[in-house]
């Protein structure tokens, strides 16, 4: 994957960075932890402007985030609750929990999007509940862009200042990203395993 990313950046320049960051937000296995430090290293060598690298990476990432926001908005609350009613165990959430989550997102959605954009894997899918909750588009784009700029700036500057030693950044960030993914999968497995218990608890509290 490293050679593939390098080839695209070398061939397309800042446009390639935007394309890669869009793809990274659509297909999470493509890591921004490789793309942006490498782009920062190229900027340090003078192959492309630093500000252009950051702008291109941000445009691509926000475009990918908007795509997931649009998907969430198209699914909508009613359809999501219908899916939960039929396949709640595998979605790990009940219609009542969707209502609770939506209420929380209506109150704190901006902060959730901002912070979510700084967390590997989560940064991709945080856009879906924003769309489902119908967060105003301008608000979504503002928070998503802010979080994306912080993340991209950090990764790019690491590559820029470390230059040829940017592999050290990757060697540190890659295990962190892996740990986050493993944690998310473990949380999903726990949600599936405890779904029945949570539903019984909800039913008992609702009957009181």
**Alpha plus pi helix count:** 10
Low-confidence stretches: none
Biggest beta sheet attributes: none
What is the subunit organization of this protein?
A: single chain
What integer is the average pLDDT? 79
Radius of gyration: 19 Å
**Which structural class do you get from the secondary structure elements?**
mainly alpha
Beta-strand content:
under 5%
Kindly report how far apart the N and C termini lie: 56 Å
Overall shape: it is elongated
Helix share bin: over 70%
Q: How many individual β-strands?
A: 0
Summarize the helix and strand pattern as letters: HHHHHHHHHH
Domain tally: 1
Which helices and strands appear, and what pairs or packs with what?
Layout: H1 2-12, H2 14-26, H3 32-44, H4 50-91, H5 95-116, H6 122-125, H7 127-132, H8 137-162, H9 167-193, H10 195-207
Helix pairs in contact: 1-2, 1-3, 2-3, 2-4, 3-4, 3-8, 4-8, 5-8
Keywords: Cell membrane, Membrane, Transmembrane, Transmembrane helix
Transmembrane segments: 12-30, 50-71, 140-163, 169-190
Subcellular location: Cell membrane
Any overview of this molecule?
The protein is mainly α and about 210 residues long. The chain has one domain (about 1-205). The chain has ten helices and no strands. The protein has helices at about 1-10, 15-25, 30-45, 50-90, 95-115, 120-125, 125-130, 135-160, 165-195, 195-205. Helix 2 runs antiparallel to helix 3, helix 4 (about 50-90) packs across helix 8 (about 135-160) and helix 5 (about 95-115) crosses helix 8 (about 135-160). The relative contact order is 0.14.
